[in-house]
Design goal:
With about 325 residues, this protein is of the alpha/beta class. The chain is about 35% helix and about 25% strand. It has a 7-stranded mixed β-sheet with strand order 1-2-10-15-14-11-12, sandwiched between helices. It has a 6-stranded mixed β-sheet with strand order 4-3-9-7-5-6, with helices on both faces. A hairpin with a 3-residue loop joins strand 1 and strand 2. The longest helix is centred in the middle third of the chain and has 20 residues. The chain is globular, with a radius of gyration of 18 Å. The protein has 2 domains: about 170 residues, Stage V sporulation protein AD (Peroxisomal Thiolase, Chain A, domain 1); about 150 residues, Peroxisomal Thiolase, Chain A, domain 1, CATH 3.40.47.40.
């Protein structure tokens, strides 16, 4: 048995890596939401200054968010041992081109909306394993790039059902170091694919909720913990519909749900008419800034289980009638 593996799917870090810096950049809609004061930069429109495409704008969001995170701790890109990043676009082109600009040894990731949690898991493994001293982690999405690729062109003006979520325009980046005080990552739980047959691309929260439930319960069983051993268990991102499904699933198995929330529910105001809430790799990537800034750094909370949830579909699989596999990876964040 591996000495750092606890139970079925959970890793315990002997030297808990520290999150020493973070930064986020969002679009104008996100900048009008309830978390606007926690973002480092808000775009005036969905195009970055000087860019003429949404895809190039998304790449700039990821690149600048990583540069901002590095500036905060006076670290140069070359000081990072590895860079873990991913996005929603085909062949994760946002992350690929960002890594080209930063010129850091790069490991590209794809976990749909679970990508940030996946990156924090992988970065922590490298640090705790002694393979690195400092790593960077990024994830991003853009409403217009995602809609064009995964659903309908925004110019078409297609009507969205109430179960649909709004892909967040935003990027979040994090610097992790092998040692440090403050906010640390103590555990990671690697998820398993769960697929109960949901095939509606406009109801991804329902498709992902079983994976979130499985990872949360497995994590608690692996560590012998209860829901109330955490100040907050937060998924990213199920939206209103998916969060309701998750709470129903947890409740049916005897678990309390009063401390369970979701990044896609927190990022927008109800009057912004986003239907079920936010989604996209950038959603949890920027909402985590708020959780670190307001909850952990200010010592309102001392332990959070952050569970990234991803709907692993593509236009190809949807066109061929496939259902939507879901995945959920989690990391335990503590203030020490």
């Amino acid at each position: 048995m591996a000495d750092k593996k606890v139970g079925k799917q959970t890793l315990q870090f002997a030297c808990a890596p520290a999150i020493t810096s973070w930064a986020s950049i969002v679009g104008p809609m996100e900048g009008q939401g309830p978390l606007k004061e926690y973002f480092d930069m808000v775009l005036e429109d969905n195009l970055a200054p000087g860019e003429q495409s949404w895809e190039k704008t998304e790449q700039k969001l990821m690149q600048h968010s990583m540069e901002l995170a590095l500036e905060k701790v006076k670290i140069l890109p070359g000081d990072l041992d590895f860079y873990f990043a991913g996005d929603l676009l085909n062949q994760i082109i946002t992350a690929n081109f960002t890594a080209r600009f930063l010129s850091i040894p790069f490991i590209g990731l794809y976990g749909a909306c679970s990508t940030l949690a996946e990156g924090l898991c992988m970065g922590s493994i490298f640090l705790d394993g002694g393979f690195a001293e400092k790593v960077g982690v990024s994830a991003s999405s853009h409403h217009d790039t995602a809609e064009r690729q995964l659903r309908f062109p925004t110019e078409q003006g297609s009507q969205r059902p109430l179960t649909a979520q709004w892909t967040v325009t935003g990027a979040g980046s994090y610097v992790l170091q092998k040692t440090g005080t403050g906010i640390v990552i103590t555990h990671a739980t690697i998820g398993k694919i769960q697929d109960l047959g949901e095939s509606n691309a406009n109801n991804m929260g329902t498709a992902m909720a079983p994976a979130a439930c499985d990872t949360i319960i497995t994590h608690l069983q692996d560590l012998g913990r209860k829901i109330h051993d955490y100040d907050l268990i937060i998924t990213g991102d199920l939206g209103e519909v998916g969060l309701a499904v998750l709470k129903e699933l947890l409740g049916s198995k005897g678990y309390a749900t009063d401390r369970v929330s979701d990044c896609g529910v927190l990022i927008y105001e109800p009057q912004q008419d986003v239907h079920s809430g936010g989604s996209g790799c950038g959603c949890s990537a920027v909402v985590l800034n708020y959780l670190l800034d307001e909850m952990l750094y200010k010592k309102k909370y001392y332990r959070i289980f952050f569970v990234g949830t991803g709907a692993l579909l593509s236009p190809t699989s949807s066109f061929q009638g496939e259902s939507i596999p879901g995945i959920a990876h989690g990391v335990v964040l503590e203030y020490r």
